[in-house]
Design brief:
single chain, 80 residues, two-stranded antiparallel ribbon
Length: 80
Protein backbone atom coordinates (compact mmCIF):
# COMPACT_ATOMS: atom_id res chain seq x y z
CA UNK A 1 0.00 0.00 0.00
CA UNK A 2 1.49 3.34 -0.97
CA UNK A 3 1.75 6.31 1.40
CA UNK A 4 -1.26 8.14 -0.06
CA UNK A 5 -3.47 5.09 0.33
CA UNK A 6 -2.26 4.58 3.90
CA UNK A 7 -3.04 8.21 4.76
CA UNK A 8 -6.48 7.89 3.21
CA UNK A 9 -7.17 4.66 5.11
CA UNK A 10 -6.00 6.29 8.37
CA UNK A 11 -8.26 9.29 7.75
CA UNK A 12 -11.18 6.93 7.06
CA UNK A 13 -10.56 5.09 10.34
CA UNK A 14 -10.46 8.40 12.23
CA UNK A 15 -13.71 9.60 10.61
CA UNK A 16 -15.35 6.28 11.48
CA UNK A 17 -14.20 6.57 15.10
CA UNK A 18 -15.40 10.18 15.35
CA UNK A 19 -18.72 9.16 13.83
CA UNK A 20 -19.08 6.33 16.33
CA UNK A 21 -18.42 8.73 19.22
CA UNK A 22 -20.98 11.21 17.88
CA UNK A 23 -23.59 8.49 17.40
CA UNK A 24 -22.97 7.01 20.85
CA UNK A 25 -23.25 10.45 22.48
CA UNK A 26 -26.50 11.09 20.65
CA UNK A 27 -28.00 7.70 21.50
CA UNK A 28 -27.01 7.96 25.15
CA UNK A 29 -28.28 11.54 25.44
CA UNK A 30 -31.62 10.42 24.04
CA UNK A 31 -31.86 8.06 26.99
CA UNK A 32 -30.74 10.57 29.59
CA UNK A 33 -27.12 9.43 29.88
CA UNK A 34 -24.07 11.64 29.39
CA UNK A 35 -20.56 10.23 29.55
CA UNK A 36 -18.50 13.42 29.95
CA UNK A 37 -15.19 11.81 28.97
CA UNK A 38 -16.48 9.96 25.88
CA UNK A 39 -14.00 10.54 23.03
CA UNK A 40 -11.66 9.01 20.52
CA UNK A 41 -8.60 7.85 22.45
CA UNK A 42 -5.75 10.15 21.40
CA UNK A 43 -2.98 7.60 22.03
CA UNK A 44 -4.52 4.95 19.78
CA UNK A 45 -5.04 7.63 17.13
CA UNK A 46 -1.41 8.70 17.01
CA UNK A 47 1.13 7.72 14.42
CA UNK A 48 1.05 7.14 10.69
CA UNK A 49 -1.41 4.25 10.78
CA UNK A 50 -3.75 4.84 13.71
CA UNK A 51 -6.06 2.20 15.06
CA UNK A 52 -8.44 4.44 16.99
CA UNK A 53 -10.22 3.17 20.07
CA UNK A 54 -13.25 4.73 21.70
CA UNK A 55 -12.55 5.90 25.24
CA UNK A 56 -15.77 5.69 27.25
CA UNK A 57 -14.03 7.55 30.03
CA UNK A 58 -15.11 8.03 33.58
CA UNK A 59 -18.46 8.98 35.05
CA UNK A 60 -20.01 9.56 38.43
CA UNK A 61 -22.08 7.01 40.32
CA UNK A 62 -25.41 8.51 39.24
CA UNK A 63 -24.44 8.25 35.58
CA UNK A 64 -23.27 4.66 36.02
CA UNK A 65 -26.57 3.74 37.66
CA UNK A 66 -28.56 5.51 34.93
CA UNK A 67 -26.60 3.58 32.31
CA UNK A 68 -27.47 0.36 34.15
CA UNK A 69 -31.15 1.34 34.06
CA UNK A 70 -31.00 2.01 30.32
CA UNK A 71 -29.32 -1.32 29.66
CA UNK A 72 -31.86 -3.15 31.83
CA UNK A 73 -34.72 -1.44 29.94
CA UNK A 74 -33.18 -2.50 26.64
CA UNK A 75 -32.72 -6.08 27.83
CA UNK A 76 -36.31 -6.30 29.03
CA UNK A 77 -37.60 -4.93 25.73
CA UNK A 78 -38.90 -1.72 27.29
CA UNK A 79 -36.56 0.71 25.58
CA UNK A 80 -39.29 3.18 24.71
Amino acid sequence: MEATERRRAAADRMRAAEGAVARLKEELAGRGVTLPSLRVDPVSSAGNEPTPLIDLGRCNIDTALRLCEVLAEKESGHDG
